[in-house]
Please model this.
Amino acid sequence: MAGGRHRRDRAAGGAAPYPRALRVNEVLRQIVAEELERLADADERLRLVTVTSVDTAPDLRHATVYLGTLGDEAAEALEERRGQLQRAVGTQVRMKRTPRLAFAADPAVEAGLRVEEVLRRLAAHGGGEPGTGGEPDEG
Model:
């Protein structure tokens, strides 16, 4: 009987195969990215801004939008357009409350850039190529 009950709960909108927060994060990422693309036509400071991910708080009151890069001008433009972005989210998603958006540079992108720089330096010194047997110079 318990197995039938479980199937019925799922069919009636029970637990999804993945958490709601992940779905919310992806929907918010898509909405913010599309809205930023539209805003970039009017505000050149937003032209090179790329949304990489969104992390929503468990209570859905706050969401951090992670961007590929976040220069000072882009950060200023995003602050100016925060209300417009939140309205776009509010009109496209049915939620009890629209999360307050915050913007941050994606730490994964920064870490990737650092790794690429280290690899370039190693290759330039001749010690970073696989199979050469050379040790990279320190310093």
